[in-house]
């Protein structure tokens, strides 16, 4: 093979690898965002669970107390859209 042909193939391969790297970066960013959302949901549920346990004894003593609002925002992780921002170099 001539050097020009080898150089051309190497550039083509480098271009493909660069595209794959960019694709993987985008996926990692998406996963990081989804991970943060999941952690927030876990904290909300843990807090709510702790609060429910604390107030259970109080509810037994008094029937006149108001129910706890369950308007916590539940995020459907499968149907969320994520906006990706490409890193600036």
What does this structure look like?
The chain has 89 residues and is mainly alpha-helical. It has a domain at 1-48. The chain contains one helix and no strands. The radius of gyration is 26 Å and the shape is rod-shaped.
Topology readout:
Blueprint: H1 3-61
Distance between the termini: 35 Å
**Percent of sequence in beta strands:** under 5%
Average pLDDT, to the nearest integer? 78
Number of distinct beta strands: 0
Gross morphology is: rod-shaped
Number of helices: 1
* Low-pLDDT regions: 67-72
Largest sheet: none
Class computed from helices, strands and strand pairing: mainly alpha
The helix content, as a percent range, equals 55-70%
Order of helices and strands: H
Rounded to an integer in angstroms, the radius of gyration calculated over CA atoms is 26 Å
What is the gist of this entry?
The chain is 66% helix and 0% strand.
Name the descriptors.
mainly alpha, rod-shaped, 89 residues, 1 helix
